[in-house]
Here is the input.
Amino acid sequence: MSIPTTMKFIVFTKVKENLQGRILRFQTKRWTVPWTGKTIAQVMILWIATFWFVGSWIVPFLAHAAGFSKETLTHRGQALYSLLTDITEGLAGIAILHQCLGRFRPLPPGWFEFNLKGRWILDVVLGCLLFPLVNLLSHINISLVPMSPGPVVGVSSVEQSIVARDPVAMALYAVVVIVCAPIWEEIVFRGFLLPSLTRYMPLPLSILASAAAFALAHFNAQRVMPLIFLGVVMGGVFARSRNLLASMVLHSLWNGFVFLDLMK
Here is the structure.
């Protein structure tokens, strides 16, 4: 017995509306933001400055005071140096965030949520389906913004470890890329910046603005397009799930994909 065409149309319409509702549901949700643009700017400027100061000055100075430099280390030593630097930068950034928001505690519900429960895994899977598009945008961006003329940049310490096939060094770099970076960046760009911007603009624009800030913070013109799109995807996943774990996992999966591709 065949299903009447009218019934098929009704079922298709309901499925379509349900899917559209699930995809667009996050647009109606917003956060209660107790601080103003002054605090938003303060956190972001201090966070970027702290990352630069710690990574470019404090850690190298301490290393020099201890009698060694990164350039003279083995592959494993350089990887450990990078991991310790990233952890120090991240903890310093979290300290900045904690200090700047201290006077607003206790924070309203919904801030910096980290939950294993819920349907966030489905949101992450849907986000992963867009990875090929991120990769395509990366190739397009590189073709539009060629390398600037100047001295040839040497092979990075990560690439040197991959060429040398040092498993310990590669494992340490993997921790930096797949674990540390997603945690620090998601806490700041999705956990703090995106919800904060909803005080002044609709949620979709907040997602886009935070994604643009995320891309610009990498200081790489050849990666702006894919990073903005990736930031929008991660922002959408976070806005739907209200769960930092979701965007962190998605971020980690993308970084893992890039790291594995680099190892080929």
Observations:
- Residues 150-154 have pLDDT under 50 and may be disordered.
